[in-house]
Write a structure and sequence with these properties.
Elements: E1 8-12, H1 20-29, E2 33-37, H2 43-60, E3 65-69, E4 84-87, E5 92-96, E6 106-108, H3 112-117, E7 123-126, E8 131-139, E9 142-149, E10 151-154, E11 159-160, H4 173-185, E12 189-192, H5 198-208, E13 213-218, H6 221-225, H7 227-232, E14 236-240, H8 241-247, H9 253-267, E15 271-274, H10 289-301, E16 305-308, H11 310-313, H12 318-333, H13 336-344, H14 353-368, E17 373-376, H15 381-388, E18 395-399, H16 402-407, E19 414-418, H17 425-438, E20 447-453, E21 462-469, H18 472-475
Parallel strand pairs: 1-2, 1-16, 2-3, 3-12, 5-6, 12-13, 13-14, 14-15, 15-16, 17-18, 17-20, 18-19
Antiparallel strand pairs: 4-10, 5-9, 7-8, 7-11, 8-9, 20-21
Helix pairs in contact: 1-2, 1-12, 10-12
Length: 477
């Protein structure tokens, strides 16, 4: 039922993976969380996917997380008289507010916020960075540029503004509609696209009001610069390397990935690495060697989860992509160097009872060779603290809240069981021992470490560390 692999896998759903049979195969192959991409499809299609995942969850008995990924503000140029134009290096190219179709010399840019934010001697990027424009002059409704890297340009291509913080909200009108729909569905995580600053995350949190966890997608240079402020108001962060590789030089992305993961772990929130991890598997049954190395490096970096996008949503080999990613993660986690890498980035425990007990549980379990660390949690905070320590001992989470179990499916090493909370101290021991035995974590006479809070059912009260030996009478309760 539960994973030996600690690093979690997120699989995006789409036309290639919209049936019960395929979603079940993806879950069996290793997918722990499923992503609904709100940029594509209708609300009714998203609702059908959500309900199908919940049916798969019932059939597996394993809590499955669902993440709704909001589109965010999309900046695009207007249209052209012809299907496409070729703009050449060194020529002048103008972006303006004229709604008429463009030519090889100009095109509409219908975003007033860009005119307000950009300055001469900076760059605009079009078509995923394939076309680069040097800004020479900025007027109220007109930007004059020199083409640095030209090429073909067609209608409605995207615009990136790497050097500026745009005066615009992270949530568009579409995003707010999608967000309210996703919250009514009951999704566990909401991912915010094109976050620029902490205030963007806070705006979403005010709308969500605790109904889902909030993940900030880090893809703009301003977000990387303010990463600690963003982490402080987020429940998780995603290293969204697609737009990040457009907004900044691509050679900087690997170092930024490591930085974001490291800062997230120290703050005690999960991190996700996404975009083009196994891109070739959209059309091929096996990944490239470079893609395997990319996935391996994300695991070595200590990411909580790694994500598949088009590979599982629209590719020809969705099941194989998940299985390949899972095999890579399992192999890397067995490497001695992986354990050494995790030990280097251990966060210093805060001066709280919960942090002290989480750190102690890791040390005690290693010393006595315990078979499992069992964590009782209602909100999930105790389990996330235990995960942050990255113990070698398996982590088993018992929670009376199915929403918590689903949300924690994204967090490193946490295997969640939906179970009634303990009613007293002996019941705490009996339940932990019984479930460890039932799920194959421990045999008779094996020892386990238990973390809990008393009085039971009180959030944020982790104050008990207990060593117990599994006995016959535990199994017969």
């Amino acid at each position: 039922m539960h994973r030996d692999r600690r690093t979690r896998i997120i699989a995006t759903l789409g036309p290639a993976s919209n049936t019960f049979e395929m979603i079940k195969k993806l879950s069996d192959a290793g997918a722990d969380v499923f992503r609904l991409n709100m940029s594509h499809g209708t609300h009714s299609e998203a609702a059908e996917l959500y309900n199908t995942v919940r049916e798969v969850e019932k059939s597996t008995g394993r809590p499955i997380g669902i993440l709704a990924d909001l589109q965010g503000p999309k900046l695009r140029i207007g249209t052209f008289k012809d299907d496409a134009v070729i703009i050449e290096n060194g020529q002048t190219f103008i972006l303006d507010c004229d709604k008429s179709p463009g030519s090889k010399d100009r095109v509409e840019l219908p975003h007033p916020e860009i005119y307000q934010a950009v300055e001469p001697k900076t760059e605009l990027l079009l078509n995923d960075g394939k076309v680069r424009l040097h800004i020479d002059k900025v007027e109220e409704n007109r930007i004059t540029t020199t083409v640095v890297v030209g090429g073909e340009l067609s209608a409605r291509k995207g615009v990136n503004v790497p050097s500026a913080i745009l005066p615009m909200a992270a949530l568009t009108v579409k995003d707010k509609k999608d967000l309210n729909f996703a919250l009514d569905l009951g999704v566990d995580w909401v991912a915010l696209s094109f976050v620029q600053r902490a205030e963007d995350v806070q705006e979403a949190r005010d709308i969500i009001c605790g109904r889902a966890s909030v993940m900030a997608k880090i893809e703009k240079p301003s977000a990387v610069h303010d990463i600690d402020e963003i982490i402080a108001v987020s429940d998780g962060v995603m290293v969204a390397r697609g737009d990040m590789g457009v907004e900044m030089p691509m050679e900087l992305v690997p170092a930024k990935q490591k930085k974001i993961i490291r800062h997230a772990r120290r703050a005690g929130i999960p991190s996700v690495v996404a975009t083009q991890m196994m891109e070739s598997m959209i059309t091929q049954p096996v990944p490239t060697r470079a893609e395997v190395s990319d996935v391996a490096n994300a695991v070595f970096d200590g990411a909580d989860a790694i994500m598949l996008s088009a590979e599982s949503a629209a590719g020809d080999f969705p099941e194989e992509a998940v299985a390949s990613m899972s095999r890579v993660a399992i192999t890397i986690e067995a490497e001695p160097s992986y354990k050494r890498m995790l030990g280097k980035d251990n966060a210093t425990p805060e001066a709280t009872t919960a942090d002290a007990i989480s750190a102690a549980a890791k040390q005690v379990s290693a010393t006595i060779e315990a078979k499992a660390i069992v964590t009782y949690t209602g909100s999930g905070s105790t389990a996330i603290r235990a995960s942050r320590e990255r113990p070698e001992t398996p982590l088993l989470v018992l929670t009376p809240n199915i929403g918590t179990a689903r949300r924690l499916a994204l967090v490193w090493g946490l295997n969640c069981v939906y179970s009634q909370d303990a009613v007293n101290f002996q019941d705490m021991i009996d339940k932990a021992c019984n479930i460890c035995h039932e799920y194959g974590y421990a045999s008779i006479n094996d020892r386990i470490v238990i973390m809990a809070g008393m009085p039971f059912g009180t959030p944020g009260k982790t104050n008990v560390l207990r060593i117990s030996r599994v006995q016959d009478y535990h199994i017969n309760i």
